[in-house]
Amino acid sequence: MMGPIWKNIQIKWYSIALILVALLAALSQTPEVDTFIVELDPLANSLASQIFYSFLRMLGAFVFALVFALTFGVLAATSTTRAKVILPVVDILQSVPLLGFFPTAIFWFMKLGSAKVGLEMAVVFLIFTSQAWNLVFAVYDGIKNIPESTKQAVESMALGPVAKFRRLYLPAAFPRIVDNAALSWANGWYFLMACEIIALGPLNYEVPGLGSVMFRAVENSDWLTFYKGLGALFAVIIAMDFFIWRPLGALASVYRFDFGAQDEENSSELSEDVLSFYRNHWICSPLHWLGQSVDWIFTKLEDSFDDKYSPEKTHTSKTWKWVDACISIVFWTGIASALVWSSLEIFEVLTTPHPMTAASLLLAIFYSSLRVLGAYVLCLSWILPLCFWLHRRQSYMRWAQSTAQILASIPATAFFPVIAVLSFRFFHTTELAVALMLVTGMQWYLLFNIIGGAQSIGSDLKDLGKALDLTRLQYFKNIFLPAIAPALVTGSITAVGGGWNALIIAEYIKIGDKLYKVFGIGAIISESTFESGDRNLVAYALFFMVFVIVTINKLFWQPLYSWAEKKFRMDD
Amino acid sequence: MNEFEKILSVENVGRSFKTKAGNFIALENINLDFFEEEFVAIVGPSGCGKSTLLKIINGMLKPSTGKTSFRGKALGGINLECSMVYQNFGLLPWLSVLENIELGLLSRELSNAQAQKKAAHYIDKVGLDGHEEAYPRELSGGMKQRVGFARALAIEPEILLMDEPFSSLDPLTAINLREEILDIWEDPNLRITTVIMITHQIEEAVEMADRVIVMDGSPGHVVKEVKIPLERPRNRKSKEFDHYVGEIFELIT
Lengths: 572, 253
Prior knowledge:
heterodimer; A: 572 residues; mainly alpha; two-stranded antiparallel ribbon; globular; B: 253 residues; alpha/beta; four-stranded antiparallel β-sheet; 28% strand
């Protein structure tokens, strides 16, 4: 029992170390930017153009994320050695609050171009970091789950590498990519809003976009504009759901490998209806056009590239061995040089003494953890009873689920400025504002997971409760709670992850001249970036934060999850 | 003794895999010859390396030791004169019947029109006409396997490799398909001359094959080759049939 867990942790520790040093290295390379150039663009163009800006950023980031995910997903899925490096690294990146790196990212990208272009690139990069990781796993899983016979059949057809990617890997990964793309976009909206807030607040930069419009509106107490912005954001999200994710979801069902499932008949008929509707509707023509151009590109690539592939010589062919060796060399030198370079950098940072001691940083992390914990308890205190109540009244469940889905589709960060302003105005405390912001950033993960867990409780267990004449509390304790335990743990892990990300913004919000700030690690990171410009402190703070979060994940949440999964699994 | 020409030979072939527990030897010292106009069945307990052997014959897997040659020439990659049929069909769910078959022709130098014509021809051959546009999920197991056969035949190979092709079909469908495969093999208009089939049903092997290769595991090796010189169609209830089944059964257990 202990064996596998420890073994697992050891493998992961290796990669944790790798990631930490790599990130820190990037940090300590932060170029010195002494003063910020305040560059206020005249805003007040139409709302539509602001949405367009925001959407463009999202789209750009998503294209990068998709290309990244396909590259690394395929690399990992086609070699177990590569998978051993790629998967843990992506796993860690997924669990670290990358929003904390936004200030650093801004410095980095400003070095590359003008301030404006740099800022824009930083925003796109940050959105990318919120979209890419789950997509990598989607591509990897999709390819790994190709049935053995299909894989072999295609293998024996002697297709060239491009043809194999186009006709096997890409279609096989497609359903999972679609499943995850909607999630990636939700994360992306969250980060986009956050970036626009950070840029406009402490940096006093104008990133034209919906987040900025809404932020400005709160700053000026212009509630009409705020609601207009919110409505516009909502409209975009709903429109995307209807015209992009639904047709793609219906299309994806064609690409799934589950032959002959029981309720297959119904669902495939349904998706057939949805598909034909979208197929004939002009509004989806961009999707068709996109599909056709991708197809065209692949045909060209196949024609020019795969002709050089000779299947009869795969055992001996020098060219293909050479190509393969090249890929490996590039991959492993990349990894190795990142490791060496970042080790040198981290050594430099950590050997430079700093006035702010480790103890006070740990204290800040402790305060921040308390906030995350408090918000977590707050979330649970309304979500658990609600889910229990809904569980016993199935007729409301569907309605509640769809309402929650709509509410959850609005990125929580859109509300952060208004929460900060209002809670300070009425309660004169920033601490409460931070807690509320964390709750909005965490609650949906918990709600959806617990509802999912509650829905999996079979009618036999419910009847058992009735047969044994359990009181409501007894039923809650003995049947409901154990049954939702695995889902609760999953929800908690993702919620706490979301909480840490929210914390970075929540602890340090600047609206107009007013600064809403509490003592915590998120505030230290923002403050030392934006005000004191102390890059060593930023490095220390990020190092400790990442270290603490990863450690808690590996030593508490993951073992807890495997325990709950083992003990309370529903199927026999 | 064999009046037909040797088409494929496996010489001193061994294959090992690296696993967490160390080196796993799947096959050791395999020597086999296959001839034209021959139907060969390979039987053996699961895990004895039958499928690995088939992959090596097909050229998808490089043997760790020894070599395979096709018509006297050493094999250095995938043998384009081989095609495969799988127990679980190996179809792509997002392609129609026609497209699935055309996919197999992609690496052969054919124009789209030629490929389509060929695919249509073999769809007809396996009795799937009218189902060209259907998707695999809409087909029964037997029909899926017909698509598998059509895909394998469309390549017009000299050797047909089958990995338990009838194991996931219901018994009645399997009986029909077995007969059809024998007809296809005997059809002088088709290029296929040699069939190599993996099975773990001894009766199936005795019913169909001219020669049964009996394998055993750890590490995978050939125990014995049994010739079945019975006239076709073979009577499963005859004494001779029983005799061969009994002989092979004893070799395995």
